[in-house]
Amino acid sequence: MRAKEINCQYLIVGQGIAGTTLAYSLLKRKQNIYVIDDGYQHSSSKVAVGMFNPITGKRVVKTWKADVLFPFLHHFYQELENFLGVKFFFPKTIYRPFESIEQQNHVLGQAAEQAFADFIEIDNKDEKYKGFVFNEFGGAELKQGGYLAVSTMLEAFQDFLKKEQLFLQTNFDENNLTVQHQDSIIWENAQTSVKINAKKVIFCRGIQDGESRFWKALPFRAVKGEVLTGHFQEQLAFEEIINRSGWVIPFGNNTYKAGSTYDWDDTSLEITEKAKNEILDKVNKLIKFPFACTHQEAGLRPTTTDRRPLIGLHPLYANVGLFNGLGTKGVMLAPYFADAFCDYLLEGKTLEAEVSVLRFLDTSLQN
């Protein structure tokens, strides 16, 4: 049987957070795309809770590039919601109980600075939370945070792609990829009788791309994360995300997600009792009422040794690209850097050096 032939400008491999945001960004710029995804249920995107928080860490500092990332992501996801006609973006206040008087003084001092004015609420709201949160030292409300219902977004965008005949669910066998010259690739799949001609292929498969012949020199690191779903034995009705070391996100009807863990050694996809107990311990130190777990999930996050994204075109193959390494902050990083990647691909603008694949590949190719 003769293969069905598909012509496009960009073949995107992987439809997680990275692939979805890049595909939409390219479509907005009137580019012809086609997306392949293997439907892998344990990908980090499919099990991601999707929290976005501008203030992080024990030192309570702004997350990297917060001043540009957060206005951009709010606009991007609301626009994508309107485009798809599906609700998946939930801005929420994040309440951060302080761990000590020293931390209280530090954060309140920051809140008075103009640089933090968009992210930290100065007004004291501790009384609102003391009935269910351990907040002996008070706390602060953080602005511009929330969560993205990642699976809902991915499913809605995939439905759109299928409707437009821009999607194929199959395993992407790299052996079937032919890199023609600087502006052409061909990928053929005998099982599905599909032949795809594209100007460029962009890999967006998360940790799987570390096994690619094009990208295996890059310092991918898999970080396992586990998350619990459950309810509190006392009927609670708070709307805010509660976050200190661990976090609790309300999903309505006394359903909450709690997390998370960071395991650099165990890269299996098995849920563990150790992780469950670690998360429960965090929740018990955060919320005054017992939490009952009803479901547990595990996924592998694609991060890097310097904890910065991996974006760009291969130095030896100008028609092979990568949009990856978004790690634990993919929901925050993806919209802004998908747009920056489009600027690079379509307008020739320079990628920031600290996210470019060339910070690693230039050196590795010389060895």
TrEMBL record:
<feature type="domain" description="FAD dependent oxidoreductase">
    <location>
        <begin position="10"/>
        <end position="342"/>
    </location>
</feature>
<protein>
    <submittedName>
        <fullName>Glycine/D-amino acid oxidase</fullName>
    </submittedName>
</protein>
<dbReference type="InterPro" id="IPR006076">
    <property type="entry name" value="FAD-dep_OxRdtase"/>
</dbReference>
<dbReference type="GO" id="GO:0005737">
    <property type="term" value="C:cytoplasm"/>
</dbReference>
<dbReference type="InterPro" id="IPR036188">
    <property type="entry name" value="FAD/NAD-bd_sf"/>
</dbReference>
<dbReference type="Pfam" id="PF01266">
    <property type="entry name" value="DAO"/>
</dbReference>
